[in-house]
Design brief:
oxidoreductase; NAD(P)-dependent dehydrogenase (Short-subunit alcohol dehydrogenase family); 276 residues; alpha/beta; NAD(P)-bd_dom_sf; Rossmann fold; binds nicotinamide-adenine-dinucleotide; SDR_DHRS6-like; globular; 7 strands
Length: 276
């Protein structure tokens, strides 16, 4: 069961009026709020018609159910966005359903805890396929449609692990997210004149179900407290912090913002001297 959706932090009505938004990884790995699930609900509250993609049908359907229960518009779709056929199918289905695509939130991500010597080639490939290849595939597929429509907004969900050594032994993950940052800036530079903007939310320690799903034997309260202690604010962020940043970058309020890496980490990366 997912806890009831919290109220938005401020009125978001109309900020994505009539926009069509594809969200990848729109479910969450367990009970509670993942970043893509919160963003889907928030985008719908802001007026978007949300195309909620997840490789697990139940996860996408759950998100769509929450949006619809609030009176919003959401179409669930099952696809693996790390594969070209999955991406082709989802873009075709979104265009068939809504006739356009204005926003793309590239939110899928996976981490493997390992340093350089114990990162197996299969883990390296998996992490890069899910975190980076997926965004390359979806971006490549939607850009022609956005350009034809006169513009669009792509938002990538990155991580502070891309900015410096966090001490988490997330070598492949950090490298893949650094690649995602570069993809963000490369697409922004290439498309500035076409009206297609591309930005990233660079996320710190956030309290999402994945954190606990990866360590089923650990006490969630202990894990939560350990992560909170690492945060300069004394608390982790949550999925709504990420969703609100993504909403800003997706909306017309950010119409002159492209190629930005918006750090949402409560100051965490300041501790390892990262510069954006
Ligand atoms: N939770 C954190 O502390 C944190 C910190 C920094 C960055 N992030 C980033 O935020 C994003 C979302 O993280 P989360 O913890 O909210 O998500 P999550 O792990 O709960 O996953 C979201 C959804 O993505 C789906 N998914 C995974 N691979 C997929 C694929 N190949 N195709 C389609 N769907 C797929 C999963 O089924 C899941 O429902 C990720 O990119 C992650 O790297 C999270």
């Amino acid at each position: 069961m997912t806890a009831p959706a919290p109220e938005a932090r401020g009125d978001v009505t109309g900020r994505l009026h009539d926009r069509v938004a594809i969200v990848t990884g729109a479910g969450s790995l367990g009970p509670g709020w993942g970043n893509g699930k919160a963003a889907s609900v928030l985008f719908a509250r802001a007026g978007a018609r949300v195309f909620a993609v997840d490789r697990r049908a139940d996860a996408a359907e759950q998100t769509a159910g929450i949006v619809r229960a609030e009176g919003g518009e959401c179409e669930p779709f099952t696809a693996d966005v790390s594969r070209p056929d999955g991406v082709a199918a989802l873009v075709e289905a979104c265009l068939r359903r809504y006739g356009r695509v204005d926003v793309l939130l590239n939110n899928v991500g996976v981490g493997v805890v390992a340093g350089i010597e114990d990162t197996e080639p299969r883990h390296w490939d998996l992490v890069h396929r899910i975190n980076l290849t997926s965004a390359y595939l979806t971006t490549r597929a939607v850009v022609p449609h956005m350009r034809e429509q006169g513009g669009g907004a792509i938002v990538n969900v990155s991580s502070v692990a891309s900015l410096g050594a966090t001490g988490d032994r997330l070598t492949a993950y950090g490298v893949s997210k650094a690649g995602l940052n570069h993809l963000t800036r490369a697409v922004a530079a290439e498309h500035a004149a076409t009206g297609v903007r591309c930005n990233a939310v660079v996320v710190g320690l956030v309290d999402t179900p994945t954190v606990y799903a990866g360590q089923p034997d650990a006490d969630p309260a202990v894990l939560r407290a350990r992560r909170a202690r690492r945060c300069p604010t004394g608390a982790m962020g949550d999925a709504w912090d990420v969703a609100h940043a993504a909403l800003f970058l997706a909306s017309e309020e950010a119409r002159y913002v492209t190629g930005a890496l918006l750090v949402v980490d409560g100051g965490l990366s300041l501790r390892f001297g990262a510069a954006v």
